[in-house]
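During the second year of the project, the team shifted from modelling isolated chains to modelling whole assemblies. The rationale, set out in the original proposal, was that interfaces cannot be judged from single-chain predictions alone. As a representative example for this report, we include one of the complexes processed in the last quarter. Its constituent sequences, exactly as entered into the pipeline, are reproduced here:
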Amino acid sequence: AQKITQTQPGMFVQEKEAVTLDCTYDTSDQSYGLFWYKQPSSGEMIFLIYQGSYDEQNATEGRYSLNFQKARKSANLVISASQLGDSAMYFCAMIYYFGNEKLTFGTGTRLTIIP
Amino acid sequence: NAGVTQTPKFQVLKTGQSMTLQCAQDMNHEYMSWYRQDPGMGLRLIHYSVGAGITDQGEVPNGYNVSRSTTEDFPLRLLSAAPSQTSVYFCASTPTSGSYNEQFFGPGTRLTVL
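Output from the structure prediction step:
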């Protein structure tokens, strides 16, 4: 069974600093993908970044990058130059391909950016 | 495109009542799913569908029914509401399986069962 672990229930970061949100996963499958979603206080789920298990390069999307360490089974989200609008819940999720596209979520990290 | 839409946004039920949460997408996505979000537990999969006429159970299916008569719609039925079903419900869709595809989430339905 797949499992996603986010060990940081909450983080406080000074504005403009970089922040790393931790995510580790457990799977015996070879074909999988890892997502990060942002959930602001308004409640919607916003897709941030994706990393496939066979991707050799770490994924980047603007200020977001995913530090993918396959051997360690970690997929940490790095946000550079944090902004006040980055304050939100962040969820790491895994999908197992060829297994009905089911997403398994971690419990999330609440990030608060301090001005 | 409207994307993934959910109705209602908010609902209050009494224990034992039944209701249907509506989900629709206009992107011709094959795969649709329902998740519930409880505090401190992330999102958990309730039911999913890989195409019209095909549904299957997720992690927490008890107390819920689904059907998929069309590609566009995937309603979630609460048969006899219980306080334990108080949660935020998200519907999601994605185009195909076996490759990278973003899961598109609806705005959510906040359900309270008294």
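The mean pLDDT of chain A is 92. The interface with chain B takes residues 4, 33, 35, 37, 43-45, 47, 50, 52, 91, 93, 95, 97-98, 100-108 of chain A (CB under 8 Å).
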